[in-house]
Amino acid sequence: METDVLFFLASIAAGVINALAGGGGLITFPLLMLVVSPVTADATSAVALLPAYPTAVWRTRRELARALPPRWLWLFLIPSLLGGLLGALLLKWTGNRSFVVLVPWLVLLATIVILLRPILVRRTEGDSKEPDLAAALWPIVMAIIFVVALYGGYFGAGIGILMIGALSLLTPGDIRHVVALKNLLTGCLRAVAVMVLVIEGIVDWRYGALMALGGLVGGYFGGLASHRANRAVVRSIVIGIGFAVATYYFWRLYGPPVMRVGGE
Question: Is residue 264 part of a domain?
Answer without folding.
Answer: no
